[in-house]
Specification:
Length: about 170
């Protein structure tokens, strides 16, 4: 776009980049003086990757690591990272955190970490990871066939397994 008149001109060039933001350059020609301004426009949201403890475990300690990046960081935006925990259905508040995060003394049940990256211009992303702590071993009950003598070729044994935490499968 160019606007002319009285010896003044303004041109605006938009440059999309692979990082998801664009730069806008304004050239002002006022009485022979040239000025250039660069403004960065936000694009893509930050990315958050969470790794570490997940699935079922018998340990009462969970450790999570995370990383966060802002594809528009070249635009001068800053980014903060905060975490929130869910412990057996109880949601905690958001608070500052750094990687790695270790929680110990976890009760049986589901524990979850939410990691949020927020940029200074308001873009944000949340990523989640959860672990199910189960410290109570399943109970196996065996029974033998009535009137069967062991030592024969084909003994019949039956069993049942119960788990107090409702674990869906056994290994």
């Amino acid at each position: 776009v160019q606007i002319g008149g009285d010896g003044q001109a303004i041109s605006i060039d938009s440059h999309p980049t692979a990082t998801g933001w664009a730069s806008v350059t304004e050239n002002l020609d006022t009485d022979g003086a040239m000025q250039t301004f660069v403004a960065c426009l936000p694009g893509a949201n930050p990315t958050v990757t969470v790794g570490g403890s997940t699935g079922y475990q018998s340990s009462t300690t969970a450790t999570w690591s995370f990383s966060a990046s802002d594809p528009a960081s070249a635009g001068g935006y800053t980014m903060t990272v905060s975490c929130r925990f869910f412990d057996v259905g109880t949601q905690g508040p958001w608070g500052p955190c750094s990687s790695p995060v270790t929680k110990s003394g976890l009760a049986d049940g589901t524990h979850q970490i939410d990691v949020q990256a927020t940029t200074s211009d308001g873009r944000s992303t949340v990523s989640t990871r959860s672990v199910f702590v189960d410290t109570i071993a399943p109970v196996a009950t065996f029974s033998t066939q009535q009137g069967h003598t062991f030592g024969t070729q084909s003994p019949a044994v039956s069993f049942s397994i119960t788990d107090l935490n409702g674990v869906p499968g056994l290994q």
